[in-house]
Amino acid sequence: MCNPETNETAASTVQAPLVKTPSVETPASDVVLSPWAIETRSMNFWYGNFQAVIDLDMKIERNRVTAIIGPSGCGKSTALRTFNRMNDLIPGTRVEGEILFNGRDMYGPGVDPVALRSRIGMVFQKPNPFPKTIRENIIWGARINGFQGDPDELVETSLRQVYLWDEVKDKLKKNAYELSGGQQQRLCIARAIAVSPEILLMDEPTSALDPISTGKIEDLMTEFKERFTIIIVTHNMQQAGRISDDTAFFLNGILVEMGPTREIFFTPKDPRTENYISGRFG
Amino acid sequence: MNASFQSASLRERHRNGKIFSALFFASTLFAIVSLVTLLASVLDQTAGWVLIEYSIPEADIVPSDDEGNPIPLASLESEGLLSILDENLGGRRLKALDLEKPLAERSPGDLRELIIAEVLEPSVVRSWNFAESMLSRESIFQWAAETVPEGSLVFRWWISSSFLSHSQSSNALFAGVRSAILGSFMTIVLTILIAFPLGLGAAIYLEEYARDNRINRFIKTNIYNLSGVPSIIYGMLGLGIFVRFMAPLTSGALFSAASAAGDSVPLEAAALAADGRTILSASLTLALLILPMLIINAQEAIRAVPRTLRESGYALGATRWQVIFHHVLPSSMDRILTGTVLAVSRGIGETAPLVLVGASTFLTQDPTGIFSKFTTLPIQIYQWTSRPQPEFRNIAAAAIVVLMVLLMSLNSAAIILRNKFRSQRRV
């Protein structure tokens, strides 16, 4: 069907057979495509009585890597998790305002968060493969989303894209927990892209990994931005500087400043950003 | 630094640690010693010398060979055995036995057994425990020879194949636990079939779907309370609801009436004649009894599944049910099964609720289906221990061993199953 050696062909193969049930937020008919992958309009977020995100206006461009930085507890992970409605699963949370995905409010009526999440993938801080075989890890997400193509091909192309194929091709039937931490995290990325999402949310994906594994994942992100919009939350400012095109700085639930990474790092407009970047707090 | 002060306090801390570890060891030792004593005292009663007296000596009924010596029963064939029965039993009794199963069709072994039970009529004069039998053999023999010289002293293993294959009898020498084992087994299987899906379903609902509001908190608290309710209360509930109120259903009258619609028996009459004291009622009662425990165990197992695992499922666009079915349940199944085994083990050993629900204390027939009258091992043990004849204590001990073996095999089956699930779980 394709030559899985090259990533581009591989990607198109993955996308082609993926049959998605027509859902309300298929952008084809009723929505004018927004220039932004994700746009929030005065978004507020509460955990019970605690407001974690305050009046957030943020525009995230397509096919770029956007880094969200800020000290612990500043609401950056919370903001990220509103972008695929992951916070819906936590009881007692509340969202106000709008979050537009392809120009349509993802918290609006008639939007099914299940369908939404299959188009906005997520990679977590701690590698969390399913306690199943490596092969099953890749196939499961695609299958529940109606994948009808060749599963072996999907496994191979997905694993090749994260450069894991050569390392695991002889033990696809082994439990995913037999892999190293870095391999597990790359498996999680492969699992996420096997569903062919449009956006990839990454919540501190390398904070539990060693520098070599971190490097491999950073390389992947730079490569992937041609096909996905990547939003990454990170504690590591060097990492943000290395891989991101845009950077957003959060402090106490407020988006202090956002812009091209170079500007944020070298000519920040806000003194708080400058303090944080130069390591004066956080 | 104050060196002397520090070392003194360190010594004290070490001493405290040693005292506590000694205490912990002592309590473990106490538990083990108690268990071993218990087990030993049970096993002690399952074998030993028994002094048996026959109403007629064997030599009086068997024919003699050419030299005038009596031929032992064991070497007689069907013909000879039948003639002994003919000579010694009344016509009425013979007819009754023939009705049960034609005598001519019975095997020589069966006939010999019948002669021993019906003609020789052995009765236990005295039985000795295993330890006594081993240690003071001489004095036992002496006592037997002095007290009942015509009696026969045999060494008896109370747990035997005939004990397992015989039903209840009023003579301890012929009593067995077959119908009790079958009753226990059928009851517990049916209990699992009823309670496991209900308990697991309730646990999934409470953990995964129920919102954290006042009603659900009230329900959860009360499930905890229910697990502490004495089992006899469940027995009364079972008696009131399953045995009495739902008698047409639990006695099977509804179903037999439906299947025999052509017959002229009216439904009301069948229901009136029906008796709800069946395996079905017992299982429903036991299921209610273990349900709170099952729910709590399963809830805890489900709660122990890490949130990251659920999130990884949801992040791929899975529905709640897909996450539960494909990830939460497989990851928690080993713990759920362990909890189920604990709950079911409690159910197997229950006596009080079954007494109320109407387990038969003297049942010579095997249960044939869920609408049969039944007895279970604990009921049987309870009944035997309450009889005055000391030899029934021996068969009660034997039945206890059978019950323990049944429990242990159930547990090991569950452990094997659990390990199978656990090998898949690495979180």
Automatic annotation (TrEMBL), chain A:
Pfam families per record: ABC_tran (PF00005)
Domain spans labelled ABC transporter: 38-277
GO cellular component, one term: membrane
Assigned keywords, A-Z: ATP-binding, Nucleotide-binding, Phosphate transport, Transport
Entry's Gene Ontology molecular function annotations: ATP binding; ATP hydrolysis activity; phosphate transmembrane transporter activity
GO biological process entries: phosphate ion transmembrane transport
Superkingdom of source: Bacteria
Coiled coil start-end: none
PANTHER family: ABC TRANSPORTER I FAMILY MEMBER 17
Protein name: Phosphate ABC transporter ATP-binding protein PstB
